[in-house]
């Protein structure tokens, strides 16, 4: 810090600082709660597994879920893998 | 074992193709057999940056669709024998890329090359996802500017969810940050996001900083990857980046503004 900085100490924040603060908000929003997933995701996954298990024996990773966003539209993509021997 | 590296960013115009060309050139100059593939189907540009636009006969899509074999489509760089280019198609659109075709082509290239560099199109649609899908590592190219940083964050999210490694639950794609068009003097004045700012937000290791430089435009005008130019600051920065990628320890250069005499005197 140079001696002239004394006179500059009460300057308002730079545009780069503003940029950083704005970015921190939008990025934290995307990353919040483990990526794109809404807060109800883990519970929904557990509930779906419970329903499935009434009919088929499946492992803990049988239900895969993803949220896709296209403009204003949100699509819940559900992928259920049945075991090889799940015959009726 | 060949390594597949995607050069990606989300946002357009940040220097993906410039980076892909110079990264590939730098690896080749260090003796590694390298191929760089243009995934920007319909908006072919890598050939121009590499200076081989008049030698493109067959392209990536021709290979995928079986109209040509790899040997016919690969263009050998005239300056470095280790460097090859696979051009994108100019007439098709991105739907011509399919995952099986891309995988088949990459597997075939992996038999012959040490490094396969995938130059991603801008955006987050099919072309960009195809470019990153099979990647082992990623160079995320970012400008010190809000929209570019935000888009890079989005791309980081995709690298950790849409790639083969992510889907198969293997080791995640190794991510590297490349900051391009960095103007140290403007950072010093508080007009531009600094490396620390970008690092705080994106949180991935910095592989290289490429200074804003008129040499980049000069090099692309003449169809020469800037890394091959002697005495170009941006070219030197790319060679440093390549050295770091290969495991060498090189301090970052071009990240401090040159101080004028009066500024030094005033302690600015």
Automatic annotation (TrEMBL), chain A:
GO biological process: cell division; regulation of division septum assembly
SUPFAM superfamilies registered for this protein in UniProt: Cell division protein MinE topological specificity domain (SSF55229)
Keywords annotated in UniProt: Cell cycle, Cell division, Hydrolase
GO MF term set: hydrolase activity; identical protein binding
Superkingdom of this protein's organism: Bacteria
Gene3D superfamilies: Cell division topological specificity factor MinE
Function: Prevents the cell division inhibition by proteins MinC and MinD at internal division sites while permitting inhibition at polar sites. This ensures cell division at the proper site by restricting the formation of a division septum at the midpoint of the long axis of the cell.
Family: Belongs to the MinE family.
Protein name, UniProt field: Cell division topological specificity factor
Species, as recorded: Salinisphaera shabanensis E1L3A
Name of the gene: minE
Automatic annotation (TrEMBL), chain B:
A Pfam cross-reference name: CbiA
Annotated CobQ/CobB/MinD/ParA nucleotide binding domain residues: 5-226
TM helices/strands, residue ranges: none
Residues reported in the UniProt entry to bind ATP: 11-18
Any single GO CC term annotated in Swiss-Prot or TrEMBL for this entry: cytoplasmic side of plasma membrane
GO molecular function: ATP binding; ATP hydrolysis activity
Example of a GO biological process term: division septum assembly
Keywords: ATP-binding, Cell cycle, Cell division, Nucleotide-binding, Septation
InterPro entries: CobQ/CobB/MinD/ParA_Nub-bd_dom (IPR002586), MinD (IPR010223), MinD_FleN (IPR025501), P-loop_NTPase (IPR027417), ParA/MinD_ATPase (IPR050625)
Similarity annotation: Belongs to the ParA family. MinD subfamily.
PANTHER family cross-referenced by the UniProt entry: SEPTUM SITE-DETERMINING PROTEIN MIND HOMOLOG, CHLOROPLASTIC, SEPTUM SITE-DETERMINING PROTEIN MIND HOMOLOG, CHLOROPLASTIC-RELATED
Function: ATPase required for the correct placement of the division site. Cell division inhibitors MinC and MinD act in concert to form an inhibitor capable of blocking formation of the polar Z ring septums. Rapidly oscillates between the poles of the cell to destabilize FtsZ filaments that have formed before they mature into polar Z rings.
Subunit record text: Interacts with MinC and FtsZ.
Name assigned to this protein: Septum site-determining protein MinD
Organism per entry: Salinisphaera shabanensis E1L3A
